[in-house]
Design goal:
With 266 residues, the protein is an alpha+beta fold. It is 14% helix and 30% strand. It is built from five helices and 13 strands. Strands 10-9-8-7-6-13-12-11 form an eight-stranded antiparallel β-sheet. Strand 7 and strand 8 form a beta hairpin. The longest helix is centred in the middle third of the chain and has 10 residues. The protein is globular, with a radius of gyration of 20 Å. The N and C termini lie far apart (41 Å).
Length: 266
Amino acid sequence: LRLYARQHVFAGYSVISNEKNNDNKMMSNLPLCTRHHCIDWNYVSGKPRPRPNKWYIEGRNTNNGKTPFHTWKEWSYATDENGQCYYWEKWDRIAGDEDGRGLRLAMRRKKEVSSSSEEGDNDAILVAVGDHFNYIVGRQFLDLQQHTRYRDAGNTVELVDLAIQHGDRDTVISHLSLAGGHGTISSGWKIDCALQPWQHGKNVFDCLIGNCCNEEVKVKVIGSGVNNGCMSWEVVIGNDSWDVYECSVSRDELQQLLLSRKMSRL
């Protein structure tokens, strides 16, 4: 369990802006990305991430800015004592993402208004670009007081280590219940990489609702979207309702896409 705790997955949303940086003039003309986390493996209730992550985007394309980046660099917003970015990462598109110009889908499970659960444990996000999807499901606390027992723990790893020292297996498992992974739509929404290796090969909708009965999960898209587009739609997966934040296909196409278990690409 201690080894299992030393993983990482997170989800949220990013805001792109332009900001003049007098401390790092080399980055002044690059777009700045600020990423806000909704769900984060590393952080525990009551001690969220202290600030959003920020970085500059340096990308190149071959058509005077009219085509999406295929390769780009992420330069840290924070700098060292010499005024240099303290890290940079190179990112490449993967096959099947359609350069971001095909399917784009972002959904988030609705918070239960009447729920007495703590923040985060009812949260879930599903995003898809091209043939690829990622999903994340927040922690399911067995006891709403669990997160208050180890106030000295600043992150998940520290909390798990402390709980194991006290023989508190239930608290450990509840904090490790956060789920996340990747898969492809063309496989029938099958998961091919996940925090929990036993989820590999399963249908993502089963994982999103915790379906253990091998029953077919009902998925339905509700709403017309005449005035507000996809923002007025609602996707029902099992008994859970999801808000649609972005969708590049029509409501009927989305319905077909979500219902298909053995589908050909749109």
